[in-house]
Structures are given as C-alpha cells and as structure tokens.
Design goal:
With about 130 residues, this protein is mainly β. The protein has one domain: Beta Complex (Metal Binding Protein, Guanine Nucleotide Exchange Factor, Chain A), CATH 2.170.150.70. It is built from two helices and ten strands; from the N terminus they run βββαβββββββα. The strands form two sheets. The protein has a seven-stranded mixed sheet, with no helix packed on it. The protein has a three-stranded antiparallel sheet with strand order 1-2-5, with no helix packed on it.
Amino acid sequence: MKRYKGSCHCQAIQFEVRAAEDVTVHECNCSMCHMCGFLHLIVPKSQFQLIAGEENLTTYTFNTGVAKHLFCKTCGIKPFYIPRSNPDGYSINVRCLESTSLQDFTIEPFDGQNWEQHAGNLAHLSKG
C-alpha cells in the first residue's frame, strides 16, 4: 500500500488515501459521473484521511439519498464522496490526486445508468 495525496482545485480540501500502486478505477456512465468526469477509486473508510477542509465541504444527495456527494464550497470540485454502492467506504476521484502520485491505473467501465443491476460488482471494493 502506498499513500497518495489529493485535493480539490483550490486546495482548501486536502486528503490522503492508501491504495495499491497498480489499481483499477471505474468510469461510470450515470448522469452525475458522466457530467463531472469522475474516475472512481473505491477504498474502505480506514484507508482515507481528510487532512484539511472539513468546514469547506458541502453535501449533495438525490434519488435514494444514500450517496453523499461532497463538494468544496469554494471551487465546486468533488474530490471524493460516499458512494451508494459502498456506503462503508469512499470513492476517490483519481483526477484529484497529485499528478505525480498514482500513475499506474486501469480504467474499467461501470454501467451506472443501470445501477441496480451492476452495483453488486463494486461492493467488495470497500471491504478491508
């Protein structure tokens, strides 16, 4: 496991995540992820640490309200959130990690438009 640093665009929100050096991330085609270009690295909560900016986070929920979409109040970027598929973990936007940190990753498509049929394929990712 390696530590990776990340932030929102204005760097008010800063975090660290522990993950393997070679990971698979998911590109979801749901309405939210498609619009913001989120690349998901799902990890257990124990592998995530918020370093700064808790007071700068705001939450958006929709549909079932299970997913907690966390945005920076200043720049509007969503660097991580609590996903509906893995409410016991975090989904990190790989695009918000320092550009020199995580370089080896495979992008796998995820059919979020048909979430109910495919969410079970992700459930294991937030288990320690």
